[in-house]
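Entry type: protein chain
Record version: 2
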Amino acid sequence: MLSDFKGIKELNLSHNRIGLEISKEISDGLMRAKQLEIVRMNNCVDLDSTQMIYNLAFSPKIRIIDLYANGKVSAGTVEALFKLLKISGSIEKLILG
């Protein structure tokens, strides 16, 4: 899926219901998206974004992560975001709420 788009710069998954299988495929693809700068996953209430966030560490150009209006953020997602912020020196904006 995403592995076919290694040069993708922006990924917008907003306003979608993404099941576990698709979520895993997206997570795996994120490890190969080296040009990715912007990820929008706002208003994805059923989405567990933890693995996706972990895999964003492989995207050295990531600048913006938008997780606005995703309901309750799990402890795993918070931990993944914390680690990502420590690893990445390129993040300019993190949107939660």
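Comment: The longest helix spans residues 75-87.
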